[in-house]
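Field reference: sequence -> structure
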Amino acid sequence: MEPSIPIIIPRKGRTRQYDLVHKADILKQLKAGIWAYFILLIIEGALRKWFFPRLATPLLVVRDPLAMWLLFVAWKNNEMPSNWYIKSIVFIGIFAIFTALTLGHGNLIIALYGARILLFHFPLMFLIGRIFNRDDVVKLGRVIIWISLPMIVLVTLQFYSPQSAFITRGVGGDITGGGFAGALGFFRPPGTFSFTSGNTQFWGVVCVYIIFFWLNPKLINRWVLLASTAAMIVAVPLSISRSLFFQVGLSMLFLSVSISSNIKYLSRLFVATAVLFAIMLLLSRVEFFHQATEALTARFQDASNSEGGLQGTLIDRFLGGLLGAIQSNTQPFFGYGIGMGTNVATQLLTGRVDEFLIAEEEWGRLVGEMGTLLGVSVIFIRVYFCLKLTQASFYRLLKSDFLPWTLLSLAFVTVAQAQWAQPTSLGFSTLIGGLLLASLKNKPVT
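Structure field:
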């Protein structure tokens, strides 16, 4: 709903009072919109698979109108952040539309679909950081922890259900299933999301909040935190996801740095470790946990054989085809056109969705779509932004503020090189980046 235009009463005191009330109303609307963005991110896949399968295609971008509305309302009421990150990305996005239409694929729909990532969702990250405060960041964490409890039940049922079952249906009600092949005959469960990558990213967010709440146990119900911790442990093997395994390991590494910076929290780490050990000891006696662990181990072995070992896996996933794209002799200087590397482009141009026209990994896609100059510029902005976030978060860590540093353990990789061509991945990146900015409210990143 469009905010009402205030009636200015010609008395200075009354005008100022009304302006303050009007601003509070605008901020309330924006905050509600951000919560709606989060809710749609969680249930988008469920809507596309189970409730409105015939609307699966338009629901793919169900959060885009909301993102545009948030940006418009913020701009109209002078609440839109302005910095060189946003200005540079928006300029590149607009310029990339022009090059895509004149020098690239020439399809306006594909160009606009690809550019919306830079024009709407990247700026929204900064708007979330401006509108949310630290209490909102913690509150959303509590909601995530609560959601993890029914989510682990769903993921477990999907893990053991055939792909023809209702809960494992794919986008559009596809009866062939929405899970990806994992190992030992098991499929990677997608949870409430359209694809398994959404499930992986969800549990990555759960993990960072679990760590934060164990360091600040007074902020959440202990039994809920305990149950969510057990759910997180179970989710790692059930996901059959190497990415989630690596993310949990990275978050634990950040935790060790947190504790080393403030030794008085060492006792809380001991308590959390003891609880973790007890949960794993109990789970080791459960057959389904054994099976899931074996499937994850087999997945690692299969991937290691095909990708040249753990080192090859990590290097390829991090560089994401960047070097290959830059060194290509056939690629146009301005690339093949923004949006060309998305599944929507594949569907429109080939009628299929099971292949990548440019590159599967993010950095290779950016360079392939926009060329070396624009593509590397976007990569530089994202990486530099993450480095500034790291600097600011570490400063807060030295002041015994663990929230930004904990969120950084997920945000750094997600914002720097997550697959933004995939809408769910884009949504989680926008959300986690915005939450990190909000947690740094007292020391803005410039």
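Note: The longest helix spans residues 12-51.
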